[in-house]
Amino acid sequence: xxxxxxxDTPGGLVKPSxxxxxxxxxxxxxxxxxxxxxxxxxPRKFYYRYISKIPEEDTFYTIRGRIVHKVCEDIFDRDPSxxxxxxxxLRSLRKRAHDIFEREWAKADMDNAFGTDRHTETSAMVxxxxxxxxxxxDAIYGKYQDPIKAWRFTKPRFTELHLVDHKLKCHxxxxxxxxxxxxxxxxxxxxxxxxxxFPLNNEYQRQLYIYAVxxxxxxxxxxxxxxxEYLLTGQTTCLPVRREFCDDSIELIKDVHAETQSxxxxxxxxxxxxxxxxxxxxxxxxxxx
Length: 289
Hints:
Layout: E1 7-8, E2 12-16, H1 33-41, H2 43-51, H3 60-74, H4 86-107, H5 110-114, H6 117-144, H7 147-154, E3 158-165, E4 170-179, E5 185-191, H8 202-219, E6 225-230, E7 236-240, H9 243-259, H10 283-287
């Protein structure tokens, strides 16, 4: 989606953007769901990553995640021809999605870096995303028998929506905002992990509710639901947005801000029981190895 004009809102900013900088300079010191989850998992990792800013190498999974998210975002940039039949619309969407995927895969030189066997698995993620899109379109097409209406009613209101709240000093990127009319809005987060965290783990739930808080404070409307789509396995999880969880999320943001003002490493203890400790980029310096 092309970058749009920044909108001034009561809570902060809403900025749909195809660019996803790690930390925009104007947002230095702001929290995000990933920063909050990192701090809660291991304060020392938060220190190394966000205060010392020690570089971390991209893994296959982080690069693949960016590629698949790019497909899920850019496929909505173009509308089908008004004269297209429904099968033609579906074929054009599939072609566009896989054209974007192949372009981004080649640009990242993924086959040489990680092997050709990863290509098939990742291409299947794109197909699962397209299948979910088709299911939603099928229901609308069955009702109206209009392929363009099926597309327009299914197309997200926003993709890769950047929400910024200057009062809370918190921001985040929502993968898709789906408008269901009288049934409200759904905020969707795509997951490309090979682990399905069923039904939902605290980390993901925390992330989704922070998105709901940011959306309400920026747009003045509380989403009805938040959802995860696991693109590797095809599972989806959807939760109703409850006011009490949003209020808890606001307090959590404030608490983490209060605990991350120091620049002293001693204020960020290690969590050696952290389940991903052995895979952490900073394990050698952290454990003195």
